[in-house]
Amino acid sequence: MLELLHIENIAVIESADIQFRPGFNALTGETGAGKSIVIDAMGAVLGGRTSRELIRTGAEKAFVSAEFSHVPADLPGLAETGVTPDGDGNLLLQREMTGDGKNLCRANGRPITVSQLRRIGADLLNIHGQHDGQQLLDEEQHGAYLDRFGRTEALLAAYRKEYDAMAELQANIRALRMDEAEKARRVDSLRFQINELERAELVPGEEEELAARRNLLRNGEKYLGALSGADYCLSGDDGAAGAVDRLREAEDAMGTIRTLGDDLAELYKRLEELRCEAYDLAEIIRDKRAEFDFSPEELDAVESRSDQLYRLKKKYGATVEDCLAYLDKCRAELDAIETADDTLVRLEKQLKKAETAVRAAGEELTKARKAASKLLEDRIQKELGDLDMHKVRFHIQFEEKAPAPDGCDGIRFLMSANVGEDLRPIAKIASGGELARIMLALKNVLAEQEAIGTLVFDEVDTGVSGRAAQKVAEKLAQVSRRKQVLCVTHLPQLAAMADTHFSVEKGEEKGRTFTHVVLLNREARKAELARITGGSKITEALLASAGELLDAAEAYRKSI
Q1: How many CA atoms lie within 13 A of 431 on its CB side?
Q2: pLDDT tens-place string over residues 88-97
Q3: Which end of the chain is more exposed for a tag (fewer CB within 10 A), N or C?
Q4: Buried/exposed 346-357: b ≥16 CB within 10 Å, e otherwise
């Protein structure tokens, strides 16, 4: 159950705390006062899509939090994110939105992503918007509603597994069934590419080796000059001694006195180590000088190979390794084309088995859907009767169709609005008020199947008035005995039926627009109901009528 909704800097609401109560909660107010902003704030804290325009003008960020009580610890959304309610079953969801589009979301203080917030929110609260009735006009949604009611998720998942396997086989077969001219063109292209890559005799890692060798060859004279200079300094020549010889002479000189003291012995030892290190360096430099064989022909060969690799990489991949991977891919494709006939025979046998498996899984899904459809028809029919639509007939039609990701059934809702009329698609005959009530009936039935504790109805009364409005109010009162109900409404019948009534009021302070949410007592409720009924001019007769409406609603609530 939603206990507290806290809003900061959302549109015209600078700050508001709304403490909802169990049962039926109604929000009323003038058009444009900000009732829908409260619903937008709920959607935001449940992970819904938001825009920067939602942030109040002049504010850097907006913040919404929602505190829920009696939250089951085993809700799927909580299990997936690792969030748990506290010891009393309370859960606090928070979302902060900044002007640069960033979001900071938390659940009981634990940082989570917007998608995780959305997953948790889907198990806690369901918002029925004022335009949701239009979803009934989309017949592709009808099957999804039936699956939700029938809880066919496991059967649908099993069917989709078989369907995906069949679809993959079909795609592979289509790829192999090319005409002879196209096949010949593709074979020629593949053979040319394979031959070009094979002639190149590519070796993994040779790019780096070539680059290093080319750099060395391009700087050959400098390289040899440096090595020669270092060799002369260390080893000298026939006319002059090098550093190694000089260090040996110093070592010999110190050797004559090294026994005269520990410090002299230490100096001798260091000279010996230094001479050995210089000798090793001289040998290494001499070897490198002898190994280097510079020739213009080798540089030309390295440049030519580097250019060849560059051209191949432009065509087949960013690196030599990518080119080799492309070669393997071409070989595999050429082999597949050349053996396509054998492969087609094998795949077609597999496809027949896959089609059989899809049909079997589809039949199981259809069987479960048809069983659920009978129950859903009965439940919807009962709900429609409660909503003063006794003469309406509701039926779920099945039509066989080719296997598709959602099954082998074409499902659509049919209705007959009047006695003696044939069943026809809802989109063709339902009025706006009828759509609203059918959707309300469907939402109520689905809510009974789910663990969601709070239902939000945003102007569910669109297109409804008079006796029908009273029936909708009574239905929401009945639902509120099992679930918490929050309803934004313009109808006095619905507002009067609420256990708790809030007024959303807009005003101006210091040149800025502000919206406040006020909890109404009985006298304030009478005044608000009179305003809804008669407009700005509130008379004693309207107030008396509002009082009678409240009394009648209270009596009805006690009777259920």
Answers
A1: 11
A2: 889 999 999 9
A3: C
A4: ebeeebeebbeb
